Amino acid sequence: MADRIRLRVGRYRPETESELHFQDYEVPFDKEWVVLDGLNYVKDRLDGTLSFRWSCRMGVCGSCGMTVNGEPKLTCATFLSDYAPGPVTVAPLRNFPVIRDLIVDLGDFMQKLVRVKPWIVREVEKPLAEGEYLQTPDELDEYKQFSMCINCMLCYAACPIYGLDPKFIGPAAIALAQRYNLDNRDQGAQDRMDVLSEHDGIWGCTFVGECTKVCPKHVDPAGAIQRYKLDAALASIKAYFMPRGV
Amino acid sequence: MLQPHAHSDGKPHVYTAYHPRWLRHHTSTYWWLQKRSYFAFILRELSCLFVAWFAVYLLMLVRAIGRGEAAYQDFLAWSASAPVLLLNLVSFGFIVYHAITFFMAAPQAIVVHIGGRRVASGLVGGAHYLAWMVVSAVVAWLLLGAR
Amino acid sequence: MIKRHPEPLLWVLFSAGGVMSALLMPILMALFGLAFPLGWIAPPSYEHINALVAHPLTRLILFALSMLSLFHWAHRFRYTLYDGLQIKHLNELVAILCYGSALAGSVIAALLLWWPHVIR
């Protein structure tokens, strides 16, 4: 068993370069190391100029998403031993503009997230004196899966539709909208539907399904989107026949 | 490295040390050849062409039946010609692929609650396959059985 | 108030067409496209199939199958051209051609099934 493994890491330094190129580094091969450990070894011992994002190193913050051997992965959850003997190619997350090295700009998603109102929307806020909202375990299960999203953006990197049309609102935004639509405390489904029923909303999705495949938290955004299409279509038909509302 | 470049709002952007030029990747027209799952997706989408072909073929059959026995027999003979047979063989493969992928996808879209409890997605999928078998059996019986 | 978009209706037609074609086309293609022409199974006699098609329920199902399958094709093919070939600038033309053909096909299906003397 080799004790070193080669990382081919994407480098982009805008002050001197205009393209992405790859630089090789040899890091120790430890069967317990993840790709993030390898990158930190590079930054600490080999090349301090390498730039990348990371934080919790345990798969809950969503910061360390990158393209590992062509697939979008959380580098803190991807073991070097899965790629032995290597080399392991680490590139910036696809479909987002690269700021530097392995760092991408997520501003597009941040704008889209706000548009879907990812918070409890109430027509009238319940006063504190009336006490807490009540929710049974079954009501929690309705939306719990979609609340697991850590905004890591692997789904956007995997989605070919987003790659072709950056105006597409995207998997995570829709899944997060669903998280609130299906929450029994929320009354904002109508507000969100106006945003999501635009052409670049849910209707841009052709159910490729890659988003669900790469999601590290098993959110199943593809399922959220298809369910929402059905709900939106039925609501649309109802509105057509009963325009003044039920 | 200061180069003007238009923003989406039309205003030109001048790159500085604190606002460097971002690298934007353009998706290739052949993106669907780059991954097996993407290719399988495009095949699934293109199966709709063969669905449309069979709709046309079915209407041709209906027209032949409407014209009388001779036209019906001619249609059957034409169906047996090599090019039509080959097309229908390929179409059959794609139509089955369409059916299988559709029934695999349906449970993700259809969430059913019965008596307050959520029906397992395996059952929803299973119901589709069951319906498929029942419908096929009924159609076969209508065409072949009750002569 | 939900803004009026054609997308939800088109998606419903696409889904319904997908389900109908998935349920009915495999067996029909297996019989009429392969088994009968190849002589594996004897095709139904003209009297039998004529009586079958003449039944009002059969004609309704055949119309639904053809119309929905054509709209299924139109919707899926339009998106495949849009995403696969990236011809965004022709988006409206592609949509009109696809749904237009499906509509034309549906009209022809209705004529063939209920007013065959109109088209010889």
In short:
The complex is a heterotrimer of chains A (246), B (147) and C (120). In chain A, strand 3 and strand 4 form a beta hairpin.
What do these coordinates show?
The complex is a heterotrimer of chains A (246), B (147) and C (120). By secondary structure, chain A is α+β, with helices and mostly antiparallel strands. Helix content of chain A is 34%, strand content 13%. Chain A contains nine helices and seven strands. In chain A, the strands form two sheets. Chain A has a five-stranded mixed sheet with strand order 2-1-5-3-4. A two-stranded antiparallel sheet of chain A has the order 6-7. Chain A is elongated. The radius of gyration of chain B is 26 Å and the shape is flat. The model of chain B is unreliable at 1-7 (pLDDT under 50). Chain B folds into two domains: 3-109, 3 helical TM bundles of succinate and fumarate reductases (Up-down Bundle), CATH 1.20.1300.10; 110-147, no CATH class. Chain C is globular and about 50 Å long. In chain C, helix 1 crosses helix 3 (56-84) and helix 3 (56-84) runs antiparallel to helix 4 (91-114). The longest helix of chain C has 29 residues, at 7-35. Chain C is mainly alpha-helical and 120 residues long. Chain C has helices spanning 7-35, 46-54, 56-84, 91-114. The chains are: A alpha+beta (246), B mainly alpha (147), C mainly alpha (120). Chains in contact: A-B, A-C, B-C. The interface between B and C is large, with 53 and 53 residues.
Tell me, briefly, the overall form of chain B: flat
Sheet with the most strands: spatial strand order of chain B: 1-2
Mean pLDDT of chain C: 90
* β-strand amount of chain B: 5-15%
Rg of chain B computed from alpha carbons, rounded to a whole number of angstroms: 26 Å
Euclidean distance between termini CA atoms of chain C:
48 Å
| CATH topology title of the largest domain in chain B | 3 helical TM bundles of succinate and fumarate reductases
Name a few traits of the molecule.
heterotrimer; B: 147 residues; mainly alpha; 3 helical TM bundles of succinate and fumarate reductases; 2 domains; two-stranded antiparallel ribbon; two-stranded antiparallel sheet; 4 helices; flat; C: 120 residues; globular
